């Protein structure tokens, strides 16, 4: 544990709290992608199966349970709870996430694991963990597409996406810090590459987010974006 990882975890947790607050207060899901959260739920479920096999710390276990439970709550709220369900616009959130995100990540994870370990050392938990790394890298895509389509986004929605991006950026700093301070630190190049890709996906959003904040206006994208 270090300050960068802790701040990254808190940023991630705060983004979830902001989104749940936005859903409960506004009573609508306009501008929110349920498909992004279905992907994140798949990420957390496949990554945190070690909850049943390995104990690291109370903090670690609690955060894993919170991520799974809160993400499941977001999906359930948007898809099944009225009046929020009626405000969710499927036509805007139309990215085929299982076909063009989850499935390719599954194939890539299988090939990566097969090449790295071989049939003799095949490990299902390792395969699912690898899938979660690939899938998390692009899980935010449906949400970013929805933002592009709506152009103008409520402040709470913009804040939610910002803290999600900040979480990943802080985790990159966490990796750099650990690599320079921990002896024998094991480098995960797949994790690094996917983390950088995920952070870069937020670059355009960050630009317009900070621009709107500096101008004191509502978060919006230009019509030719």
From TrEMBL:
Regions crossing the membrane: 55-76, 96-115, 127-147, 159-177, 189-210
Source species: Cylindrotheca closterium
Record keyword Transport present: yes
Protein topology in the membrane: Multi-pass membrane protein
GO MF: ER retention sequence binding
Protein name in UniProt: ER lumen protein-retaining receptor
Main location: endoplasmic reticulum
Family statement drawn from the similarity comment of this UniProt entry: Belongs to the ERD2 family.
Superkingdom as given in the UniProt entry: Eukaryota
GO CC annotations, alphabetized: endoplasmic reticulum membrane
Locations listed in the record: Endoplasmic reticulum membrane
A GO BP entry: protein retention in ER lumen
Keyword vocabulary terms for this entry: Endoplasmic reticulum, ER-Golgi transport, Membrane, Protein transport, Receptor, Transmembrane, Transmembrane helix, Transport
One Pfam family this sequence matches: ER_lumen_recept
């Amino acid at each position: 544990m270090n300050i960068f990882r802790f701040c990254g975890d808190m940023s991630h947790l705060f983004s979830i709290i902001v989104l749940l607050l936005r859903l409960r207060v506004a009573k609508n899901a306009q501008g929110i992608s349920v498909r992004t959260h279905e992907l994140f739920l798949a990420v957390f479920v496949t990554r945190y199966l070690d909850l049943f096999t390995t104990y690291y710390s109370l903090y670690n276990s609690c955060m894993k349970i919170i991520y799974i439970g809160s993400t499941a709550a977001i999906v359930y709220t948007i898809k099944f709870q009225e009046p929020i369900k009626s405000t969710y616009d499927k036509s805007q959130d139309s990215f085929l996430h299982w076909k063009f995100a989850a499935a390719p990540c599954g194939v890539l994870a299988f090939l990566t694991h097969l090449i790295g370990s071989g049939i003799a050392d095949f490990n299902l938990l390792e395969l699912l963990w690898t899938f979660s790394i690939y899938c998390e890298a692009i899980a935010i895509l449906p949400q970013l597409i929805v933002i592009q389509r709506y152009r103008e986004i409520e402040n709470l929605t913009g804040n939610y996406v910002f803290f999600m991006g900040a979480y990943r950026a802080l985790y990159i700093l966490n990796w750099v810090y650990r690599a320079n301070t921990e002896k024998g630190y094991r480098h995960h190049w797949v994790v690094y590459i996917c983390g950088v890709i995920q952070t870069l996906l937020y670059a355009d959003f960050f630009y317009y987010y900070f621009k709107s904040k500096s101008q004191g206006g509502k978060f919006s994208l230009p019509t030719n974006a």
